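ugh ok fine here u go
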Amino acid sequence: MAAPRPAHGCGSGALLGRFGVLLQALLALCAFSTLMLKRFKEPKEERRPWRIWFYDTSKQGIGALFIHFANVFLSDLTEEDPCSLYLINFILDATLGMLLIWLGVKVVSWIVHRKKYTYLVFGEYGDPPQAAAWIGQCILYLLIMAFEKTVISLVLFIPGWTKLQQILLGYIPSPQLELVLVMFVVPFIVNAIMFWVVDSLIMRKCKQKDTLDINGSMEAPHARRTEESQELWLLSDP
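structure:
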């Protein structure tokens, strides 16, 4: 027996129905295309090799999947319209959540630099790139995502969200149209912005990055070039 549908909105289980899953697959493809576009928009001298690009973007992909399925799970926990609950979760993730992710990346990066954990610096994978560094950074990023989702879930306990649900999607008569808006149109626009911003946060900055040597010390490229120039000048001096 099918689960009853609320007075407005999509019914329980609609997010994981055949149409909902199709929309999610299409959204994943479009989100991936956004990251591809960003790579080709980067200046050629700063463009990451494909392997480094994959390491950077896959962290985002894993984090986005974690948040997405957490939102789907949370949206089906109550008798309320799951589509509007998912949308509220998503909007909070894209606003307050983005701030929490930014703070999390900054705090983790500060700790990693302080402790000199070279391979846990976001965007640094060694030379040649090491899969172990990527795995470590994925774990750190997932911990940041888990922290963000926990805070957002606590925020949802604040009274008043039910009224917001009715304001957001209560005027849409078609459950399928609501599903398209919630699972594709809004997430595509917001994810495109979020992926672009977060990728810029966690990628290695080629122009201003400091280079970590094997011992974990940090040496600026400009300082190295100056020292090399001085050595060449001394060698050429009669």
